[in-house]
Design brief:
elongated; GNVR; about 240 residues; Bact_polysacc_biosynth/exp; transmembrane helix; single chain
């Protein structure tokens, strides 16, 4: 009995969605179109550039690397990450690049991180201008390399790789195809929700089953539609 009820419920759901198919298609198509227009024409493309720093003590040719020195450098990286995004560094970056941006705006564009147990620090910058993103990354690295000598009295930072701009840079966001796919899924969900809401609010009686459900009475018989006598006569004549 339970399986029968579930089967009937699934059939009713399928019939409901089929009846409101135009609504589902319309809402989904509208969501996809709006998402595409916004992604391609309204959202500003954002580009990304990265540069890398190596934290390592200066060594003479005769000296051998010490494991303790490496561990010390790794522990210093967390401190370097904080200093690199501090006002003492970023304000000088903005000054050298003549950027009309506050410390908070510039700080929000820069991400600093390092791999686990690695002596390499990555500086990643996002900006609407790919060249400016690369310039900010490179200048941040050079300013930090210069200023860390005065801040912590150490000279163990070198630039490993500079940020460069390709001939045809590709923005990292927005991603129009992904946005459109998400909009299609959301549009379908909204369409299904509206379809069920409209069905719930629709109290009109259209079929015998609706009448039986409202009155809670079984259907003993139905009256078919009687066609017009003249129409029947025409059909009979055409058949003969």
């Amino acid at each position: 009995m339970k399986d029968t009820i579930e089967e009937i419920s699934l059939v009713e759901i399928f019939q409901l969605l089929k009846k409101r198919l135009w609504l589902l298609i319309s809402i989904t198509a509208l969501a996809a179109i709006i998402s595409g227009l916004v992604s391609y024409f309204l959202l500003t493309p954002i580009y990304q550039a990265s540069t890398q720093l190596l934290v390592n003590q200066s060594k003479n040719e005769q000296m051998v690397y010490n494991v303790n020195d490496i561990q010390t450098n790794i522990q210093l990286i967390n401190t370097y990450n904080v200093i690199m995004k501090s006002p003492v560094i970023l304000e000088k970056v903005a000054e050298e690049l003549n950027l009309n941006r506050s410390y908070g705006q510039l700080n929000g564009q820069i991400t600093v991180g390092s791999e686990k147990n690695s002596q390499v620090i990555s500086i990643t910058v996002q900006d609407a201008d790919p060249k400016l993103a690369a310039d900010i990354a490179n200048i941040t690295a050079s300013v930090f390399q210069r200023e860390i000598k005065n801040i912590m009295n150490v000279d163990n930072v070198s630039i490993l790789a500079k940020a460069e701009v390709s001939d045809h840079p590709t923005p990292i966001k927005p991603k129009p195809l992904l946005n459109i796919a998400i909009a299609i899924v959301v549009g379908l969900m909204v369409g299904v929700g509206i379809a069920f809401l409209l069905e719930y609010l629709d109290k009109t009686i259209k079929t015998e089953q609706d009448l039986a459900r409202v009155l809670d009475l079984p259907i003993l018989g139905t009256v078919t539609v009687i066609q017009d006598h003249a129409e029947l006569k025409k059909r009979k004549k055409a058949y003969n």
